[in-house]
Design goal:
With 229 residues, the protein is α/β, with parallel strands linked by helices. It has 2 domains: 2-127, Response regulator (Rossmann fold, 3-Layer(aba) Sandwich); 134-226, Winged helix-like DNA-binding domain superfamily/Winged helix DNA-binding domain (Arc Repressor Mutant, subunit A), CATH 1.10.10.10. The chain has 8 helices and 12 strands. The strands form 3 sheets. A 5-stranded parallel β-sheet has the order 2-1-3-4-5, sandwiched between helices. Strands 6-7-8-9 form a 4-stranded antiparallel β-sheet, covered by helices on one side. Strand 3 (48-54), helix 3 (62-71) and strand 4 (80-84) form a beta-alpha-beta unit. Helix 4 packs parallel to helix 8 and helix 6 crosses helix 7. The relative contact order is 0.11.
């Protein structure tokens, strides 16, 4: 996976050129496609550092593209930034539930897009460093060097954001964190994301952990914690 290669998936030529121009100014190599089918093929071939993905595409839409990318082993760890004109809560939730790592609505500031893209790349890079070791508790194992998670010996596939949340909570077992504290820890302070988005990420994380999902406990009126040892 090349951190400096970005795949842009959007069927609007003006948006393609706007993103391409601004990313190239920042030193990225940019590849652009306009359909969901082409996005899946390009992601498999290029193994980009990240994908900027529009929701409304001809043929396979962005939600389904993201869903397929996250299910496929060779592309599951590629960060995905959703970029779309849809701004209703249900659309944001739908995008995040497929495993997207961020969500930006049109119209957008190129500077904001680049800042959020860099944040996603930093999280992905941190998750893949080879010197981070392992975390283990209650049957959940995180191999931080290989970006792998297991529950009772069974592999669990997580998005970069889900991985970051689980890692943060497991490093602080028994401590209760508000949704805003979780946002600050995994995405940086003043990150423009709703508390509802954290709930969606936690819900998805519990589902993927299956028998180990109960270890992420809800503390009513406050937030979440990983079960104490």
């Amino acid at each position: 996976m090349s951190r400096d290669v970005i795949l842009v998936v959007d069927d609007e030529v003006d948006i393609q050129e706007l993103i391409r121009y601004n990313l190239k100014k920042e030193g990225f190599s940019v590849f652009v496609v306009g359909t969901g089918e082409d996005a899946l093929n390009a992601a498999e071939e290029l193994k980009p550092g990240a994908i900027i993905l529009d929701l409304m595409l001809p043929g396979i839409d962005g939600v389904e593209v993201c869903n397929r990318l996250k299910r496929q082993e060779t592309t599951s760890t590629i960060p995905v930034v959703m970029l779309t004109a849809r701004s209703e809560d249900q659309d944001v939730v739908a995008g995040l539930e497929t495993g997207a790592d961020d969500y930006i609505t049109k119209p957008f500031s190129p500077k904001v897009l680049i800042a959020r893209l860099r944040a996603v790349l930093r999280r992905s890079e941190a998750a893949n460093r080879t010197d981070q070791g392992k975390l283990e508790a209650h049957g959940v194992e995180i191999d931080l060097s290989r970006y792998e998670v297991r529950c009772n010996g069974e592999d669990v596939r997580l998005s970069a954001t889900e991985f970051a949340i689980l890692q943060f909570l497991m490093r602080n077992p028994g401590w209760v964190f508000s949704r805003n504290k979780i946002i600050d820890a995994v995405r940086g302070k003043d990150y423009p994301v709703t508390e509802r988005s954290v709930d969606v990420q936690i819900l998805g994380l519990r589902k993927k952990l299956d028998d180990c999902g109960y270890l992420i406990e809800t503390v009513r009126g406050i937030g979440y914690r990983f079960k104490a040892k």
